[in-house]
Amino acid sequence: DAVMAQHGIAPIDLLVVNLYPFEATVAKADCSYDDAIENIDIGGPAMLRAAAKNHARVGVVVDPADYGALLEALAQGGSTAAQRRAWAAKAYAHTSHYDGQITQWLSPRAADPAAPEAWPHTFNLSLGLASALRYGENPHQRGALYVEKAAPQGIVATARFLQGKELSFNNLADADAALECVKAFDAPACVIVKHANPCGVAVAADLMTAYDRAYAVDPTSAFGGIIAFNRELDAATAAEILKRQFVEVVIAPSIAADALPHFAKKANVRVLACGDLRTSPGLEYKRIAGGLLVQDADTDTLTAADLKVVSARAPSEAQMRDLLFAWKVAMYVKSNAIVYARDLQTVGIGAGQMSRVVSAK
């Protein structure tokens, strides 16, 4: 303070910085190595970290969503200590994510920028806390939902919660399994999931028929299940679901306005609108003790033209259609996975058995 006073340097009370758009730059298909390096911010992260360390005296803001609170605080005479602590934590998270993305992009190109390696040498994940859950997979475990930065719509993690009880750890996991499965179909489809596996899947000309056929596959398992659709859920189908069965979660791209009053009569039913459906994320993760398994998402590209008939009798066009339908369903069934299907409806689904024979039975 004495040195600043001696040289007439006024203290800095507020720092607002937007970093160079590195992540957006490298996401472009035509991004060159030089363009990427040019978009690595040098001074911005240094200023942010310095201001965040001195948050007792300096407000540091990196998120435009905080601008409103900042303006309100300034109008009232200044930010509070609690606000500055929260903003400082956000600043460190922001620079950590920024550096992580640079590392992840740069490390595979260290040997040859023109021929990057398949995987970065360091893998960085940056997720924000969306909600604390009542408990985890079991009541004695704590649980929380974290969401990736800039996660798209069309997924469970970013779906709008319209009504119902609080979502549990298992609700979210099962809803994700149902929604990802129903995305595999272009025509109106319904997927019912119970304990992480589909118990009924059907494609039809309309949602009501698709739901009716999916439910008919295994009504016992459908009780208390998760139901996903790939079209806006209409009022008639919503009413039929509630009349026919107990359901934990219903999720669709959107819910028709006249369907919501039906759900309102069952206040505990969780209803989610996920927005326009998107393909699955580019990478999938599986946690193991001390590490993380990473792989490309299992996006289905199989067509009838890819198949080779090796039997004496070739399948009919309808049978080939059902085989491809069953193939899509099997992608979302725990191995050993056996799926029987006919007329774009599952007949039986065998999941999670150690023996394929037992799964088939």
List the topology elements.
Layout: H1 2-7, E1 14-16, H2 22-26, H3 33-38, H4 43-53, E2 59-61, H5 67-75, H6 81-106, E3 127-133, E4 143-148, E5 160-163, H7 169-182, E6 189-194, E7 197-203, H8 207-217, H9 219-222, E8 225-229, H10 235-244, E9 247-252, H11 260-264, E10 270-273, E11 283-288, E12 291-296, H12 317-330, E13 338-341, E14 346-350, H13 356-360
Helix pairs in contact: 4-6
Architecture overview:
With 361 residues, the protein is an alpha/beta fold. The protein contains 13 helices and 14 strands. The chain has helices spanning 2-7, 22-26, 33-38, 43-53, 67-75, 81-106, 169-182, 207-217, 219-222, 235-244, 260-264, 317-330, 356-360; strands spanning 14-16, 59-61, 127-133, 143-148, 160-163, 189-194, 197-203, 225-229, 247-252, 270-273, 283-288, 291-296, 338-341, 346-350. The strands form five sheets. It has a six-stranded mixed beta sheet with strand order 5-10-9-8-6-7, with helices on both faces. The chain has a two-stranded parallel sheet with strand order 1-2. Strands 3-4 form a two-stranded antiparallel sheet. A hairpin with a 2-residue loop joins strand 6 (189-194) and strand 7 (197-203). The N and C termini lie far apart (80 Å). The model has no long low-confidence stretch (mean pLDDT 95).
